[in-house]
From TrEMBL:
Database matches in SUPFAM superfamilies: Acyl-CoA N-acyltransferases (Nat)
Natural source organism: Pseudonocardia spirodelae
Keyword Ion transport: no
UniProt-recorded name of the protein: GNAT family N-acetyltransferase
N-acetyltransferase domain mapped to chain residues: 13-186
Keywords: Acyltransferase, Antibiotic resistance, Transferase
Length: 191
């Protein structure tokens, strides 16, 4: 009898800081059609330096974190405090105020074969739990997501977020309509 095939999404989900050696892998992920559709990034060397270089040098208030699944890099999480990005906070404020204690997260899963298998909610949970630990003054996590990106907003729901608003925001991909949904998760009470 042959052993059962290993579940490709089994194993611990951990996060670690993005380092310069991760950039070639990040480029491949961002260029993958299922990622590029929603993370509409230029992936030239100059663009990667523009978008991720400040974080690599410790000059960015937000965090770029590599998602590892059982020790293998499989994605990226961006985690930040809204107050560190006042221009973006001002854009979302008419739809749903974020407040000084709000965090936000965004993520991607690079290998297509790992998508649609329940990994997204686990990544979101790891990002949120790490955010609570890193920012003891954080009160909630507020995440806008394109209304067309059903997989992402369903992953947020599975991770415990609730939809609190919908409205128009400038889309990441100019091909998308501006409608987005805003999801929120409040910090759990201390036992």
């Amino acid at each position: 009898m042959s052993p059962a095939p290993r579940d490709p999404v089994a194993g611990a989900v951990t996060l670690r800081p993005l380092v310069r050696a991760d950039l070639p892998r990040l480029r491949r992920w961002l260029d993958a059609p299922h990622v590029h559709r929603w993370w509409f990034h230029d992936t030239t060397d100059e663009a990667l330096e523009r978008d991720f270089g400040a974080g690599l040098r410790g000059q960015e208030p937000g965090e770029d974190l590599v998602v590892e699944l059982a020790g293998t890099p499989v994605g990226l999480v961006q985690r930040a405090r809204w107050r560190d990005y006042p221009e973006e906070a001002a854009l979302i404020a008419p739809i749903h105020p974020v407040g000084p204690g709000a965090l936000t997260v965004d993520y991607l899963i690079g290998p297509l074969e790992l998508t649609g298998r329940g990994l997204g909610p686990r990544v979101i949970t790891a990002a949120v739990d790490g955010g609570w630990a890193r920012h003891p003054d954080a009160t909630c996590v507020v995440v806008p997501v394109s209304a067309g990106n059903r997989a992402s907003w369903r992953a947020l729901e599975k991770a415990g977020f609730r939809r609190v608003a919908s409205g128009d925001l400038p889309p990441d991909n100019p091909a998308d309509p501006p409608l987005c949904h805003v999801y929120r998760l409040d910090r759990p009470p201390v036992p």
